[in-house]
UniProtKB/TrEMBL annotation:
UniProt entry keywords in alphabetical sequence: Signal
Positions of the DUF5722 domain: 186-587
Signal peptide: 1-31
Pfam family, one: DUF5722
Keyword Signal: yes
Source organism, top-level taxon: Bacteria
Segments for region (Disordered): 59-79
Keyword Signal found: yes
Name this polypeptide is given: DUF5722 domain-containing protein
Entry-linked InterPro entries: DUF5722 (IPR043780), GH (IPR017853)
Length: 598
């Protein structure tokens, strides 16, 4: 299954929503009230709401029902707190600081633990300490139990005017890998060369020397049957035995050839497990996949279990299953309408719900496979002036907002999967895309493709985007292709091969990019009909949408030899005249093979 199968000639765009999101100054549940027993022994305030319920009522961070008038009349806490949470010595250790005028009536700070779907404070505090500028808490992790705190969001509150008032950010554990069952080291790639492989042509992929491969996991398909049982946190989940056996066979074959496998987790429409779909969302003819749901108890529990199952099974501990080293959660999340459908919503709300599910997925994956890497993906629409702000958003705005939302809950090691298709994608020669006016060499650019790819990695080098160890986030180019057929010019196979060579050298010479995974090994007829003939092989066009290879293209041998020191420059010599250069080092910054050029 190829994510490009349903793309049209006109590239799916993303929208720009001018939204400023600070890292720690905004707490979505600030001033929230709770239900339980207060320090004075009296009951207080009504039930909290889940994220989905809050969306319906429009109430963010305030309890609903009886007691609302009291909340409006009472004064608000005047202090704020910053909180962080880590696992240390088998416990959850929390540290924080308080700023502003202290207003706690009893001089104490109270610690609450809530499930990810609980937006307001809920239940009773699990610990308390004296209010001071610096504070800490230590609480049980309950790592292997059904009521584990591994996924919980922690918050600090003060008691004021007969209610607890939340004064901190919602802090999540940032090192779930501490409890992972698999601690295999990260599988370092041999080169950056990757391909979307046609499953009935594995021997050809092996001949090509593929080092990276994508595998799509559609949750609707793997849960469509039974035969494989998985128990997680007190519940048993069922997976389709035939589907899982096919994944085991293919992934173990890839792993056996030292290929680095990237798993793309996709949420297809699911009648069997409707809790995986965001509440209120109806099936849409425009949506190929749907947003993940962690905003309800059932959705959260099922999402974490499915992610844990995949990460555990494909951790590499069992050679018969193989290993998935990278995990991408969803596809092109700046496109709500087609690839991550959650219904029309403003970007801040959309990002909040995506990050809620992403963090649950991250925790599930990392707590099973410590050194797996977890990614989200965006397309090439960096600043799209035609965005509608409800169903499509600009990649840059989404990147900024996701980063800010994650930082509020505690920095984790997310990474980015990017799709730098040429603009327009029906022409392979990306090196002249600036002539469209959509490509410039700075972050104001409308499009980021291979012509200005450094803009993306330069942007990620900024201090605001660093990971918890202050390293630059890793980037994989997980989907792109260069057409061999132009609607206006016909056969452009030489240009296709030249474009791949140029693009690969750009990626190979960029230290922040780990892979270029080309779409695809064989043309897909549905794509060819829209002048998107991306394959190393041409295909038959008389068998409907079935993918049947016919002949190799020029790009095939270029792909095979591009990462071989002894053959790479010879294999790409022809491309220099196509592009109009005399040396690769003229146009590729820090060209890897500069010393070998004549």
């Amino acid at each position: 299954m190829n994510l490009m199968h349903f793309r049209s000639v006109q590239r799916i765009t993303a929208a720009a929503l001018l939204l400023s999101m600070s890292v720690l100054s905004f707490s979505p549940a600030l001033g929230a009230t709770v239900v339980g027993i207060g320090p004075d022994g009296k009951p207080f305030q009504p039930e909290q709401q889940s994220g989905a319920e809050l969306q319906k009522t429009g109430e963010r961070g305030n309890a609903a029902g009886a007691g609302t008038d009291q909340a409006e009349e009472s004064s608000t806490a005047t202090e704020t707190a910053e909180l962080s949470a880590v696992i240390a010595n088998g416990r959850v250790e929390l540290k924080g600081s308080v700023s502003g005028s202290y207003s706690a009536e009893d001089g104490k700070l109270y610690l609450f633990a809530m499930a990810p779907y609980q937006d307001s404070l809920f239940g009773e505090p699990i610990a308390n300490t004296a209010e001071s500028g610096q504070f800490s808490f230590s609480t049980e992790l309950r790592a292997g139990s059904a009521d584990t705190r591994l996924y919980d969001g922690f918050a600090v509150a003060v008691w004021k005017d007969g209610r607890y008032q939340e004064i901190s950010n919602r802090a999540y554990i940032t090192n779930p890998e501490t409890v992972a069952g698999s601690r295999l080291p990260y599988q370092a790639p041999l080169t950056k060369k990757g391909l979307l492989v046609q499953l009935d042509m594995l021997s050809d992929a092996f001949d090509l020397g593929v080092k990276h491969v994508n595998v799509n996991f559609n949750l609707a398909q793997i849960t469509a049957g039974s035969g494989v049982d998985y128990s997680y946190r007190g519940k048993t989940y069922h997976f389709d035995a035939a589907q899982i056996a096919e994944y085991d066979k293919n992934i173990s074959a890839y792993s056996g050839k030292s290929m680095l496998v990237t798993g793309i987790v996709l949420n297809g429409w699911n009648e069997r497990m409707p809790e995986l779909i965001y509440p209120g969302v109806k099936k849409s003819g425009d949506a190929f996949y749907y947003g993940f749901n962690a905003s309800t108890k059932e959705g959260y529990e099922t999402t974490r279990a499915l992610m844990s199952f995949l990460a555990e099974r494909y951790s590499g501990e069992n050679a018969s299953c193989g290993r998935v080293t990278n995990w991408i959660i969803g596809n092109e999340i700046n496109n709500n309408k087609n690839w991550n459908y959650m219904g029309a919503m403003d970007m801040d709300r959309y990002v909040e719900e995506y990050v809620r599910a992403f963090r649950v997925s991250y925790t599930a994956i990392k707590s099973a496979s410590a050194n797996a890497r977890v990614f989200f993906s965006i397309d090439e629409n960096w600043n799209d002036p035609n965005a509608d702000e409800k169903l499509k958003y600009s990649g840059k705005k989404i990147l900024d907002a996701v980063n800010a939302a994650i930082l509020r809950g505690g920095n984790i090691s997310w990474n980015l999967a990017y799709h730098p298709y040429p603009y327009p994608m029906v022409e392979p020669e990306f090196w002249d895309d600036h002539s469209t006016g959509a490509i410039v060499q700075n972050e104001s650019t409308q499009i980021i493709d291979f012509e200005n790819l450094n803009v993306l990695t330069d942007y990620l080098c900024g201090s605001a985007f660093r990971d918890p160890s202050n390293n630059v986030r890793r980037v994989i180019l997980s989907e792109q292709g260069f057409t061999a057929t132009s609607a206006s010019r016909g056969n452009v196979e030489e240009a296709q091969a030249a474009a791949f060579a140029y693009a690969y050298y750009i990626a190979d010479s960029n230290p922040y990019i780990d892979a270029l995974i080309l779409s695809r090994q064989v043309d897909a007829p549905a794509e060819v009909r829209t002048s998107c003939a991306f394959g190393l092989w041409a295909c038959r066009m008389d068998v409907g949408d079935a993918i049947v290879a016919t002949r190799r293209r020029r790009i095939w041998s270029v792909f095979r030899d591009i990462d071989k020191k002894a053959k790479t420059l010879e294999a790409t010599e022809f491309a220099k005249s196509v592009i109009g250069i005399s040396k690769w080092s003229e146009v590729v910054p820090s060209f890897r093979w500069r010393a070998l050029e004549k």
